[in-house]
Amino acid sequence: MFGRFGNLAPVLVQNVQQSQQQRGMATLKAISIRLKSVKNIQKITQSMKMVSAAKYSRAERELKQARPVGVGAQQFYEKAEIQPPEDAPQKLIIAMTSDRGLCGAVHTSVVRQIRNELQLSSENTKVICVGDKSRAILQRLFGKNILLVANEVGRLP
């Protein structure tokens, strides 16, 4: 079978065996390459931690400023002397999701909960969608229940 190759057959077989990965101790070069890649990954991770810490502190500052508005709104609704109509109780669900981003599991969880509520009593329930993701998911099955959609809330001009 190797008649065409003549005396080259043992050399070719030996080259194939050498080119295959050998198990055992890693070479010094392989270890140094791996160490460099680990250090680079550590640097990237550290910079990502710093960015997320800065974003978190900014969000905390903004939340601290917005808290009095929420307290005032809650007091307003507690002191309002409006009675609901006696005939059929109405429900309002406010879906808070983002317009875009990489938090798909959050959107799915929010919409799943709303979908369960709407399947129980969809006739007397209205939904306000804050964020485009909730509207996009709920529009197909429960479009008639969507009362209002607010997009790009919180964007700076």
TrEMBL record:
Keywords of this entry? ATP synthesis, CF(1), Hydrogen ion transport, Ion transport, Membrane, Transport
The membrane-topology field of this record reads:
Peripheral membrane protein
Q: What is this protein called?
A: Uncharacterized protein
ATP-binding: present as a keyword of the record?
Answer: no
**Pfam families from the UniProt entry:** ATP-synt
Q: Name one GO molecular function term.
A: proton-transporting ATP synthase activity, rotational mechanism
Q: Which compartments does it reside in?
A: Membrane
- InterPro entries linked: ATP_synth_F1_ATPase_gsu, ATP_synth_F1_gsu
Xref: PANTHER family: ATP SYNTHASE GAMMA CHAIN, ATP SYNTHASE SUBUNIT GAMMA, MITOCHONDRIAL
Which family would the database say this protein is a member of?
Belongs to the ATPase gamma chain family.
Q: Which GO terms describe its cellular component?
A: proton-transporting ATP synthase complex
